[in-house]
């Protein structure tokens, strides 16, 4: 028999039965895929300049200093905040300045971590047979890797990048310390329990100026530093978003965009898609390099691990503003339409652990704060059909957090924190009934802010709500008109009479035409307008308007309604001594208003307190100085007890108390009280406010002896 073999083949010939067994042993690396290199960082786009990380790098450098013990460092933060960029910069420093061997392993998944660590072992001298045995499971792979890392003749720096699932490191005991090197981990997992013995370092967003310079580094001819700073603010100063935006601007050749144009396009919608267009130049579409997809990796992991409520909670937060949200808002049964209330704690814990949100403390309130670009990305990826449920749930949660009937009281910082979230909901609502519900909530919140003395926030909230509501409901919708009226009321308290008067006149005219002159909304606007007129030098017109409001409210709402009683007490503050005497003669209940209010509303109701305040004023202008002094002193104490020492009306009562003190001959006490009033009004309202100017003038008259108390009026 003839036989031929070629290329290492074999021919066997036999005349009888034979059994032939061959064993083949081949050197070289096993067939399992591994990284092409562990000596260079496996990263995407490298920053032109690493901005604002010098403090972190200084701390990391200390770990490389000669004589210092080696350790494990963990850089943690939300996706896109630049953890890998910091690790890469430190990697270069360790090699260039400290002579370390740099080893870079991607720890995003088990296979990549295993292959990368065995490649690091090979770099440090592991033999092929040992590596093959580890790959085939015949010997512990982690032990082999650390055996050679511990024996390394040169000191090293090992970077474990993207270690977002610490369980992968823990299961094989892949994360260890060594006297021969330093380990640096980048991760989104913030909880210290995952990193025992490691030094943790949070990596956050960039300061405003450094964020602007990142854009200018990448697209130096696209705009000014100020324009770049405005874009950086819109992008939340997130390094990934800044890098993508700068990359996009730099890529435009035929029709270059300016930063100003880019910023306008961001505000027009689809911001996430626009940002991610800057990733086109990357060699591969890695989800970690796209703001629209980088956080989806974690959300997918939640679904796989049986934590869908974490995804639901983040989608709910994505309907709100990228501002601190009091945790109490989420601790409500109204959340049940999105996730079981009992699972809210677990869901929030998962988001915190994965750096998808963070806890902050503002004015003693624990809040959850989520980055704006992250929220935009989650909102853009929310499946159709869910936004309606999410928005309705968010409205119900915020509605439960705003007082159903706002009342005067101490400043409440929680209310101001709710404002951006309510306005964001209103901005998302494109049509009724959702827009109407959100607008009514926003106006009620503005009222609550106003009645705690936070007039600036009330004006900003009501003004923004009116503008947004008009887009969805039209300028003449009842709720839009009410929001405008609330804006005018706050403008008055801010001393901006020239703006408040025409606005309130226009709204009252529209309400009279559309709703009727005696509609409660029309009357409420009239109540606000008379305040402006009375303080703007048109007392007679104000009194006429106020009397018409009182009469209509008695018919429409009833004599004991809080709004009716408030209007009647306003007359006590508006009328002259002669008018008060005449009114008291015609109506024997007029000067008994404090008792009437207390009977209907209670002794500590804000309207009752104001009635007592205005009654003391009426006694003073009637010339009953001793009685006025006794009453207003008690009013000041009760105001402070019920409304708080810094409530604006306290200063008004103190000013009246200073006048009664002066009328009784206690000039020094009066001047001391007026010093408090002027200082308080300058601090709270500003030096140019009308109320401040009136108080300052009164103080000067008291000091110069030019002030004279009113004389007694017969019949009072």
UniProtKB/TrEMBL annotation:
InterPro entries: NLR-like (IPR053137), P-loop_NTPase (IPR027417), TPR-like_helical_dom_sf (IPR011990). Residues 1-45 are annotated as: Disordered. PANTHER family: AAA+ ATPASE DOMAIN-CONTAINING PROTEIN-RELATED (PTHR46082:SF6), ATP/GTP-BINDING PROTEIN-RELATED (PTHR46082). This is Tetratricopeptide repeat protein. Gene3D superfamilies: P-loop containing nucleotide triphosphate hydrolases (3.40.50.300), Tetratricopeptide repeat domain (1.25.40.10). Pfam families: TPR_10.
């Amino acid at each position: 028999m003839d036989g031929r073999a070629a290329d290492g083949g074999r021919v066997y010939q036999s005349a009888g039965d034979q059994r032939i067994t061959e064993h083949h042993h081949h050197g070289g690396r096993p067939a399992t895929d591994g990284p092409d290199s562990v000596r260079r960082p496996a990263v995407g786009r490298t920053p032109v300049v690493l901005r604002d990380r010098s403090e972190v790098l200084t701390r990391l450098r200390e770990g490389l200093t000669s004589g210092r013990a080696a350790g494990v460092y963990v850089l943690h933060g939300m996706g896109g905040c630049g953890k890998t960029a910091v690790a890469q910069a430190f990697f270069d420093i360790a090699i260039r300045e400290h002579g370390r061997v740099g080893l870079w392993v991607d720890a995003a998944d088990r296979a990549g971590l295993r292959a990368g660590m065995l490649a690091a072992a090979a770099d440090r001298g592991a033999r092929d047979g040992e590596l093959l045995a580890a790959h085939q499971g015949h010997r512990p792979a982690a032990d082999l890797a650390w055996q050679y890392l511990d024996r390394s003749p040169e000191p090293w720096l090992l970077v474990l990048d993207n270690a977002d699932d610490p369980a992968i490191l823990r299961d094989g005991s892949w994360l260890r310390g060594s006297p021969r090197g330093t380990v640096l981990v980048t991760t989104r997992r913030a909880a210290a329990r995952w990193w025992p013995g490691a030094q943790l370092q949070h990596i956050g967003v960039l300061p405003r100026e450094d964020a602007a310079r990142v854009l200018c580094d990448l697209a130096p001819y696209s705009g000014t530093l100020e324009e770049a700073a405005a874009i950086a603010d819109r992008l939340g100063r997130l390094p990934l978003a800044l890098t993508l935006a700068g990359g996009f601007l730099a890529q435009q050749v035929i029709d270059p965009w300016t930063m100003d144009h880019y910023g306008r396009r961001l505000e027009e919608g689809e911001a996430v898609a626009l940002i991610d267009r800057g990733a086109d130049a990357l060699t591969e579409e890695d989800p970690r390099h796209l703001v629209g997809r980088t956080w989806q990796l974690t959300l997918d992991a939640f679904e796989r691990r049986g934590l869908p409520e974490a995804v639901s909670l983040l989608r709910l937060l994505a309907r709100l503003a990228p501002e601190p949200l009091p945790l109490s808002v989420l601790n409500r049964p109204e959340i049940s339409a999105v996730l079981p209330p009992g699972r809210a704690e677990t869901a929030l814990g998962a988001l915190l652990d994965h750096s998808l949100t963070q806890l902050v403390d503002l004015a003693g309130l624990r809040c959850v704060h989520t980055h704006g670009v992250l929220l935009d990305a989650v909102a853009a990826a929310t499946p159709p059909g869910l936004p309606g449920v999410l928005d309705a749930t968010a409205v119900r949660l915020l509605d439960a957090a705003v007082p159903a009937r706002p009342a005067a009281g101490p400043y409440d910082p929680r209310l101001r924190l709710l404002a951006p979230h309510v306005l964001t909901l209103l901005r998302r609502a494109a049509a009724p009934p959702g827009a109407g519900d959100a607008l009514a909530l926003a106006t009620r919140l503005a009222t609550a802010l106003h009645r705690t003395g936070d007039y600036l926030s009330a004006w900003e909230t009501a003004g923004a709500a009116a503008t947004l509501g008009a887009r969805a409901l039209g300028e003449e919708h009842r709720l839009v008109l009410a929001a405008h009226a609330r804006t005018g009321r706050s403008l008055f308290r801010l001393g901006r009479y020239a703006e408040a008067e025409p606005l309130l006149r226009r709204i009252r005219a529209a309400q009279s035409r559309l709703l009727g002159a005696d509609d409660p909304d029309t009357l409420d606007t009239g109540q606000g307008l008379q305040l402006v007129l009375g303080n703007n030098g048109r007392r007679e017109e104000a009194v006429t308007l106020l009397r018409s409001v009182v009469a209509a409210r008695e018919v429409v709402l009833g004599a004991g309604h809080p709004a009716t009683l408030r209007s009647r007490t306003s007359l006590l503050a508006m009328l002259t001594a002669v008018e008060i005497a005449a009114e008291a003669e015609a109506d024997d209940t007029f000067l008994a208003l404090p008792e009437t209010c207390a009977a209907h509303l209670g002794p500590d109701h804000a309207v009752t307190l104001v009635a007592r305040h205005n009654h003391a004023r009426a006694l003073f202008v009637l010339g009953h100085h001793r009685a006025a002094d006794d009453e207003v002193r008690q009013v000041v104490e009760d105001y402070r007890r019920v409304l708080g020492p810094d409530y604006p009306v306290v200063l008004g009562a103190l000013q009246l108390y200073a006048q009664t003190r002066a009328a009784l001959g206690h000039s020094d006490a009066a001047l001391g009280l007026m010093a408090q009033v002027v200082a308080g009004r300058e601090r709270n309202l500003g030096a140019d406010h009308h109320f401040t100017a009136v108080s300052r003038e009164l103080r000067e008259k008291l000091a110069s002896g030019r002030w004279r108390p009113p004389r007694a009026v017969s019949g009072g």
